[in-house]
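RECORD TYPE: inverse folding
INPUT: structure tokens
STRUCTURE:
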């Protein structure tokens, strides 16, 4: 321990001639503690919400999704895709088509995203876990079936056990529109609803319905093995980043291989931006709270003028004296930071295990309590950030000490 730090520690815990100095120092440490705990709690709650949404997407999104970089559709009946299909890390290889169509039911019309899926889709995702009514059936051997999002079903007034057919219309993409007979420019199909799913994400619930891959190929005029995406499920023993890189090397730069985060890149980017902006706002509040430290340290410097002169007579140079009070202010900030970290971690762990802070009453919320995901990397960042700000703020009055 250096002499400057040793003297600063003695000053911190020794009695002062004016009790106001102790009060202001305590207020400064308390302010830093509260803001530090708030930063830990807010960042943990935002991590919790991110993990909740990630789990919701994981019920529907595949582990890896292959799309063409340029264009909309491609053929997966190639040697490269055969090599991907034969990889030992690939457990499920599913062909899908996503296009927009007009759906009609009982004189109600609504555009929707039709996702044509093959028989592997049920093994690819956790579709059974998100069904809220009916069953997952897209073809019963005699009739085409569909499973749609709960928001879309509500808009169309459709229930899972309705026997009235749903009509689908899509423009013939390989033909020009016939202005004399525009109705002939649309391909038509019919299906019956078999189930309703809920991902609790508007992107899927309010505008998507699942149909069989042959129905989508016929409706949108796609040839066999022409798809808009290939979706993969990996084996439990595989490593996702390595498999993703390996598949990209097989297919080349004309295809993109997306994991779940990349499939929802815009959403997770928005979450990260919100987290960053919230952190910046809390840092600004921390700066304001830390300025109490300037007053506390300035009062201490005035109180210790006799000590400063004594140290000078004993041979202490000006940089050493300034470091003493710099360490003094930094120790006050550090006590508040450590106390805030302990308080924030305790609050997050108690919320995670007991859920004492509720989101509301009733079934309108996905979760009953605020989700928390404590990440020690965030705790370390907050601690280093608070200590750095405390050091900078303590330097302001310390550098004004004159011999």
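DESIGNED SEQUENCE:
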């Amino acid at each position: 321990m250096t002499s400057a730090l040793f003297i600063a520690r003695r000053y911190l815990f020794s009695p002062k001639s004016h009790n106001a100095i102790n009060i202001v120092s305590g207020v400064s440490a308390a302010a830093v503690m509260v803001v530090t705990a708030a930063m830990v709690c807010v960042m943990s709650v935002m991590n919790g919400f991110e993990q909740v949404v990630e789990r919701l997407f994981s019920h529907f999104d595949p582990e890896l999704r292959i799309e063409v970089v340029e264009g909309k559709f491609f053929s997966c009946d190639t040697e490269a895709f055969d090599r991907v299909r034969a990889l030992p890390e690939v457990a499920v290889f599913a062909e899908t088509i996503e296009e927009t169509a007009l759906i009609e039911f009982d004189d109600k019309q609504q555009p929707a995203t039709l996702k044509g899926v093959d028989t592997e889709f049920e093994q690819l995702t956790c579709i059974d876990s998100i069904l809220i009514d009916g069953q997952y059936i897209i073809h019963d051997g005699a009739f085409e079936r569909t499973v749609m999002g709960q928001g879309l079903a509500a808009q169309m007034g459709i229930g899972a056990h309705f026997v009235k057919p749903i009509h689908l219309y899509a423009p013939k993409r390989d033909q020009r529109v016939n202005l004399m007979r525009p109705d002939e420019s649309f391909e038509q199909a019919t299906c019956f609803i078999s189930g309703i799913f809920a991902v609790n994400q508007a992107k899927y619930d309010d505008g998507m319905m699942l149909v069989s891959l042959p129905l989508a190929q016929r409706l949108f005029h796609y040839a066999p093995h022409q798809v808009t995406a290939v979706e993969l499920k990996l084996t439990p023993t595989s490593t996702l980043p390595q498999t993703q890189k390996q598949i990209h090397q097989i297919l080349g730069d004309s295809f993109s291989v997306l994991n779940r985060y990349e499939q929802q890149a815009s959403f997770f980017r928005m979450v990260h931006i919100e987290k960053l902006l919230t952190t910046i706002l809390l840092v600004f509040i921390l700066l304001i709270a830390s300025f109490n430290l300037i007053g506390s340290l300035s009062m201490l410097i005035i109180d210790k003028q006799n000590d400063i002169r004594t140290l000078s007579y004993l041979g202490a140079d000006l940089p050493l004296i300034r470091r003493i009070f710099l360490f003094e202010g930094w120790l006050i900030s550090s006590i508040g930071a450590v106390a805030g970290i302990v308080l924030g971690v305790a609050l997050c762990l108690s919320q995670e295990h007991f859920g004492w802070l509720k989101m509301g009453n009733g079934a309108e919320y996905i979760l009953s309590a605020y989700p928390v995901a404590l990440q020690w990397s965030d705790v370390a960042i907050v601690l280093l950030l608070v200590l750095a700000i405390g050091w900078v703020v303590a330097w302001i009055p310390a550098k004004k000490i004159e011999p």
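NOTES: The chain has a mean pLDDT of 83.
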